[in-house]
Specification:
The structure is a single chain. Helix content is about 40%, strand content about 15%. It contains 14 helices and 13 strands. Helix 5 (about 75-85) runs parallel beside helix 11 (about 265-275) and helix 6 runs parallel beside helix 7. The mean pLDDT is about 95. Bound molecules: pyridoxal-5'-phosphate.
């Protein structure tokens, strides 16, 4: 940006580092002239959306001149039924990122602070900084008391100070794939001050198959300060339509609704999400493909002698050594897009999303070639 214009921005925005998205396939094709590349860079669903979703989206075409239902009545009702909560507990967002931003706009100010972990999802620092609020970044586990790079809830509790209004917790976290147990999170909620909004971000909830992994929605009735966020971008395969949601008591939902854009979720997205919720079989298949793909990819990584962080999401962070920039570039030349995570304070790591069997195979073959293994 022109330097003088940047100086006109608020101090928070001046210091902001914009979000780095995964490289789009079309950009790789444009820049490198590579066809048939595979993108394993944005934790998307490699199966795509359900056929029922495509039908539902098509059925909306005739109404494109109309504004969407600004209150998302039908989608909220369907989510409420599924989650066994009142419809007033649901806040719809343009992706769950939108809901995270609503939290920052409703509860943070330049006089307050947000707590999140080192190596946590990039949108927490962005929405905090955009408001000009202070970020209290808690050190992550070093591997002695919990998974290396994982959230340390004791450190996060200790990072809450008198100015703290919001805590962001990712369960599981991206890009680490680490997760928190039911008892650890329950303790955190019990001990967090009631005047601090606790956001539990469950963007990868549907993928997790650990007996001790909590469903934080069950705690919403007990904690007026709890917001659980989820998304249709991952296991439901609707990333491009941008639809996610928050679940909280009505008081917190009302606060978020005050700063929400009137028509933040478009009608195609609402129809698609409704149809996706009704297609359990597609969800089951998506999760199954992910479990198989995770097995395939991690076995392949071990065979290459590469360390990775055990992940319960649809991605895995792999330690490829110091020069991730060069490895990333060379993988691009092999037609494989992954994600460097230096910006997450994890130099040496690349994050690889789980793809279809042949995509994972292509990625492993490219890694073997690029790393000379
Ligand atoms: C932990 C986490 N939370 C939230 C999101 C936001 O997803 P969306 O805005 O597509 O719902 C992501 C996306 O990568 C994520 O990894």
């Amino acid at each position: 940006m022109n330097q003088s214009i940047l100086q006109l921005c608020t101090p928070g925005v001046q210091a902001l580092k914009p979000y780095t998205p995964g490289k789009p396939l079309s950009e790789l094709e444009r820049e490198y002239g590579i066809r048939n590349a595979v993108k394993l860079a944005s934790n998307e669903n490699p199966l795509g959306p359900s056929a029922r979703v495509l039908e539902a989206v098509k059925a909306q075409f005739a109404d494109l001149a109309r504004y969407p239902d600004g209150n998302g009545f039908e989608l909220k009702a369907a989510l409420a039924r599924k989650l066994a909560v009142p419809a007033e507990y649901i806040t719809l967002g343009n992706g769950s990122n939108d809901v995270l931003e609503l939290v920052a706009r409703a509860f943070l100010s330049p006089q307050s602070a947000a707590v999140f972990s080192a190596h946590a999802f990039a949108v927490y620092p962005i929405v905090t900084q955009a408001i000009g609020a202070r970020a209290n970044v808690a050190a992550a586990h070093d591997g002695s008391r919990g998974p290396r790079f994982g959230h340390d809830l004791e450190a996060m509790l200790a990072a809450i100070d008198a100015d703290t209004r919001v805590v962001f917790i990712a369960n599981p976290n991206n890009p680490t794939g680490t997760w928190l147990t039911r008892s650890a999170l329950a303790d955190f909620l019990r001990n967090a001050p009631p005047e601090v909004i606790v956001v539990i971000d469950e963007a990868y909830f549907e993928y997790v198959d650990e007996p001790d992994y909590p469903d934080a929605v069950e705690w919403v009735t007990d904690y007026p300060n709890l917001l659980v966020t989820r998304t249709f971008s991952k296991a439901y395969g609707l990333a491009s339509l941008r639809v996610g949601y928050g679940v909280s008591q009505a008081g917190l939902a009302d606060a978020l609704n005050r700063v929400r854009q009137p028509f933040n979720v478009n009608s195609l997205a609402q129809a698609a999400a409704l149809a996706a919720l009704a297609d359990d079989e597609h969800l089951r298949q998506s999760v199954e493909i992910n479990h198989q793909g995770m097995k395939q990819l991690t076995q392949g990584l071990r065979a290459l002698g590469l360390d990775y962080i055990a992940s319960v999401g649809n991605f895995v962070a792999v330690d490829v050594g110091a020069d991730t920039g060069a490895v990333y570039e060379n993988l691009l030349r092999e037609g494989v897009i992954v994600r460097p995570v230096d910006n997450y304070g994890m130099p040496g790591f690349l994050r690889i999303s789980i793809g279809l069997e042949k995509e994972n195979q292509r990625c492993l073959a490219a890694l073997a070639k690029v790393l000379g293994r």
